[in-house]
Amino acid sequence: MSVTEAFEIDEIRTALMGTRFAGKVRHFGSVGSTNAMLLEEAAAGAAEGTVFVADEQTAGRGRGGHSWHSTAGDGLYVSALVKPSLPMREALWISLATGLAVQRAIQQTTGLVVDIRWPNDLLLGGKKCGGILVETALEDATLRYAVIGIGVNVNHAAFPEEIAELATSLRLESGAAQSRSGLLIALLRALDREMMMLEDAAAAVEETLLERFAGASSWVRGKRVNVPEQGGYTGVTAGLDEHGFLRVAGDDGVLRTVLSGGVREV
After folding, report:
1. The model's pTM
2. Less crowded by CB within 10 Å, the N or C end of the chain?
């Protein structure tokens, strides 16, 4: 049975006062993709902090061109426009910082502790409960802006047969329906904090962000994984490099850097 909860937009806007997202949250009933819509707005000059949130996506997208299961009223489907001053080589930091923000928001609102599968998957009990898609625009090798798309399975009671063994929701894991509005507020406040840390502590963020992500994810060190890129190989994760990319010590003795995600536990 689906749990339909309307977003309390006035409450959300009030709760976001003092953040870059204050007064910039727009709600939609059904859209193709919040990320695609916000990318168009960003290219046309939308202000930093613009947020699109939808009850349903009919063409939700994930990393690597994958589709995202976005049933009406059950999930949190949100995209946020940010403009941190970062060189493009550090753009991955935005995805890692977002993962930490979502992890914090879910724990604050539900008590559940999600694991983060590098770089962008959110897991509970080994099953996926959410994902992150960051899409960027450049100007002279510097990040012009980033649209952060976040999808979280909140009140799904069941999933289609083809993904039922792989997916879960906050409701299924906690045993109770959860507030999408409450989660959205906690998420955007946490995301604002993470972006401030990227901007205000640029000199130290390499160490602090990467260390915090490593502490929040069981996938960064000591996880035996299969990596589909570079012809495919297996090995054990061996930490992050200075840009946030995952390193894997292959079974053949070669230490490689994973560039495109898609690692899976062996």
Report:
1. 0.92
2. N
